[in-house]
Structures are given as C-alpha cells and as structure tokens.
C-alpha cells in the first residue's frame, strides 16, 4: 500500500512540474518530495517522471496512472473527513452497555445525573446480556466471578460492587424463615433456572454448586429473573439469583440469604482509554459506583 504522502507528492509535482513548487504547496522540503518520488518509483518499478529543463514532467506511464492516483487521494480525503465527523459526534455521545438487572436499578439515576451535569451529551444505552467478549460501548458493565479479574490491556477496569446470590422461595415454604440457608439444603427442592445457557450468572452458580458438591437439577427453565420470580410466586419451585436481580419482587415470594461461602458475582465497569472525553467517563463510572454501593433492594422481612 503506497503512502498517501507519496501520492500527494506525485500529484503535486505532476501539476506544477517542479519539486520546489510542489514542496512549497505541500509544506515540505524539496528533499522530502524528491525522496517520496524515488520511493514511489522504487515500489512500483515504474519510471514516472522525466526531466524537462529545470523541471519534471510525467512519462507516458506516469500520466496513465495520474487519474487513479487522484481518485485514491479524493477517497482518502473523504475518509478523513468522515472520521473527523464521527470523532466529533463521539465527543457529544456516551454509550453504556449494560445487563438487565443493572439497567433497572442504576441506569435511570445515572442518565438523570449525566443529563444534569452534561446537558449537551446524549446517552445511548445498549443491552448486552451474556458473556463479555469485546468492548462495544464507551462504558460496559461486566459480570465476573472474581474481584481481581484482569481485562485486556486496551481497556480500563473498575470494580463497582460485589453482588451475593440469594434464594427466592414461596413465602409459605418451610425454608422461608431461616436467616440463611446452604446450597446443600436446597438440593432436594425443585429449582427454576433463570439465565441463558452460557450466561455468566448461571456459570457462577454452577461453579459454586460444583465446589459444594451439590447436584444441579432444574425442574423448570426461565431465561429472565422476573419470569423465574413469578414462577416462584406460583409455588413452582425456588430460584437462586444475584441480590440485585430480585427487584421488583412479586407478592408471595420471600428472599433468603445463602450461607457462606455464598456464590457472588462481581460487577465491573470497563471503558475505552482512548475515548476523547475521559473526564466524562471517569465521572460516569464514579456515579455508577456510588449507585451500586448504596443500592439495597427491598426484601420482605422474615417473620
């Protein structure tokens, strides 16, 4: 691929017939322009210019490719203009990738905060359920099994909160009153699944059950927390889910904490270190952390 600078030198010399004039037009030294022409001829294996008096003129070969070179330069100019437009647009937009339970609890408050602080910035929310694979938003909320998880070097990562798992049971069930219950004590009950097949929340639960020697046996499957909770309210079984996912809690459901060591998911905010508005990114993540730390879903009291 030939350098745009080399092609610009070619076109300018072709138009002016002079290395010195081309250099003045391009804001380069004459030696730099001459070097560009030599490199271009070496790369192509073609003789593009011939001397005429004190100047240069195109050979027949050089003249035959002038139109194509002008087209490449025009295309390059349009591309650069489009990139500049996109960069300018990005300055006035912040995209946030989120999963459903965080969206319900935190993001309305976060968007209201950003609207007040940065009224000229549009916030775009992108629902991104399932395992994290790439940074597709300026800020991405990510679930992991570890608070020390290392992300790729091209992203900045910030731990927001630890979110322990709880069990939702019918409020008239015999296990609805304990202060806590172990995974082993739940093994013989009917379980209701609440996540997609390879979802991170499901993986964390499976790993915790494996460590505790508890066999997984789902009687029913639902692919969302609200659906599973409503199934619990109908007495169809119990469901284990992160504490953040219990809101809104339907009538007839009681939340019981899991005994230590309870499975826990860790919620991180990862961001693009190359974003042009790092102050905005840092402020948004700080506000997210405050929302996460101060957030306590309401659960019915025992008794």
TrEMBL record:
It holds the Pfam family LysR_substrate. The keyword S-adenosyl-L-methionine does not apply. GO terms for molecular function: DNA binding; DNA-binding transcription factor activity. GO terms for cellular component: protein-DNA complex. It comes from the Bacteria. PROSITE patterns: HTH_LYSR. Keywords: DNA-binding, Transcription, Transcription regulation. Residues 1-59 form the HTH lysR-type domain. Belongs to the LysR transcriptional regulatory family. This is HTH lysR-type domain-containing protein.
